[in-house]
């Protein structure tokens, strides 16, 4: 097999893996499945160039790579996306606040929204896999802190949390359906997995059914 044929084969292998996967694939996984002689970085660049300008494009999503609908054609699938994950206005607002203010407690979310947030709202977001329990705030009562997940980045086609849009774009992306209280801060988001100086680890028995996460 000629060198060119070998490179073409490697490119087809990379394309097949990404096309068949139902989630973004990390560099380590792709490299492990490709032959040792494959030039991984060059293959990625070649594949991205091959799909440039087409209906689907190769994108870095969270910690992996995936084919995604081209940004200028995303409107074609907005209805289907909304139908799959239809969240209440309260859930969308809560999600956006967690994304920007993480780690955030329920009380902090309520302070920003200006209204109470039910435990059911947070439960729904936990079930979607878009937020997670991080730790406990090192304050009286030790309230649980929440943060976003890699699944959140994947669903909204974000390479990292710093790629989150501004307030107006949040509405267009479906992350925010209404206006936050006037003057609500929009800080630089940070989803560092390490606990902050004011967070303690979760207890080992936190996920037991009878454990109350936060006081009502």
Explain what this protein looks like in three dimensions.
The protein is an alpha+beta fold and 216 residues long. Helices cover 41% and strands 13% of the residues. The chain contains nine helices and six strands; from the N terminus they run αβααββααααββααβ. It has helices at 3-20, 27-33, 40-51, 78-84, 89-101, 106-113, 119-128, 150-155, 167-173; strands spanning 25-26, 56-61, 64-69, 131-137, 144-148, 199-200. The strands form two sheets. A three-stranded antiparallel beta sheet has the order 1-3-2. β4 and β5 form a beta hairpin. The longest helix is centred in the N-terminal third of the chain and has 18 residues, at 3-20. It starts with a helix and ends in a 16-residue tail after the last strand. 23% of the residues are buried. The model is unreliable at 205-213 (pLDDT under 50).
